[in-house]
Amino acid sequence: MAAACSDGASGSSADPEGAETARPDLRGTVLEPSWEKPDVTLTDTEGRPFAFRAETDGIVTLLFFGYTHCPDVCPVHMGNIAAVLRDLPYAVRERIRVVFVTTDPERDTPARMRNWLDRFDRSFVGLSGTEAEVGAFQAALRLPAAVRQPTRPGPLPGAYAVGHAAQVIAFTADNRARVVYPFGTRQADWAHDLPRLVEADPWPSEGSPEPRER
Amino acid sequence: MQWWCSAQGLAWSWTWRPYLGVWVMVAILVAAYVGLARRSGGAPPSRAGSFAAAVACLWVALDWPVGALAAGYLASVHMVQFLLVALIAPPLLLYSIPVGAWQRLASHRRLVRVLRTATRPLVASVVFNVLVWLTHWPRIVDGLMGYQAGSFLIDMLWIAAGLVFWWPVVAPVPARPRFGYPFKVAYLIFATVANTGVFIYLTFTHLPVYATYELAPPIPWITAREDQQVAGLLMKMGGGVVLWTAIGVLFVRWFRAEQA
To answer: Which residues of chain A does B211 touch, with a Cβ-Cβ cutoff of 8 Å?
Structure first.
């Protein structure tokens, strides 16, 4: 994977018509080359099939794999994204969709997932699938498969944690995975990048010069 | 096992955890006070009670659960800790020192000379406010709170800043006959204004300023932004309550002195 951190960087490239198109100055890790958005169908919290590529076509999509019993990474990511989305103008906000895929289908029932996501934002999409379907989805995005990890003996018998990728993957409107946001991404980073991801439509052609260091 | 509370990045648990460093600090304080009181011919109940209250403040603020929540989970609890450690415990500690001990201190000329400079009201006010700003500066908080030694350093700086700040108001040595009640009241009123900058910064900055608390395993009933706003309000209102209470006490004493 060739990932280039574009923190504090900016640049420009020529679009197909020859006009200079500014490359967005992003704080996330820009993927070069970008990845294709997988064509995967999972089940949403209403029990309906959700064709990920078709349903999110043409809008910026933030994809995250996690689980609702997660004590740290998942609620922090979801909470920070939700807090920033609330501040964005409606015109920007309506062009962003957040999709959460559970890596713990055994405990994350549709109702539980819906309830958990609603604590952050009622528009967040919750998806579940079989272990094989979710595993294939993660593999298509070059993410490690989630693994169940026993927790120390506690008051809840059979309790376990799920080790999973901690990054949010951002797809631009052209159905390409362009930017990765690791755990540690802050609200200031989201507030900086999300409007730029929406504005970067079309995304400047790939292979353009590396953004200059500021 | 940790000796001092620091940000650990672990999900919050109400399971008790010991912090030996806090216990050792409390034990040293108690031993020192008992020795001081013995050498000074004993401490009257009001001063001994003040000492007990000061130690209780420090113990509550620095040990589990307040210390742990303050170090790694909630900026608002961090602010409660600041109020207890820097604004409430120090005047109680200074007041608790027996008269005999102050008299002995007054006989150390070189030390008194140093104290006269270090605790001059203007110097004390500047030192206190600079330390308050520094210890609430996001880069410093985020850089230190993840380490026990860093968290310990912030707590000790708060105690030191609080002692310096309250010294001109509470301590009888060095004697400052010109720094009477009107000036003490003015000094404290200025302090109620001086913390406004941190209050405004925390309360009205739209995005969370501390990564430590923004990225901490969440506590369910409060968001990072709300937590930060509560912290700012606590600094202003909690600090205001402490300072205006002290101002009230000074007014009563001033009135009594005038009556006598």
So the answer is: 184, 186
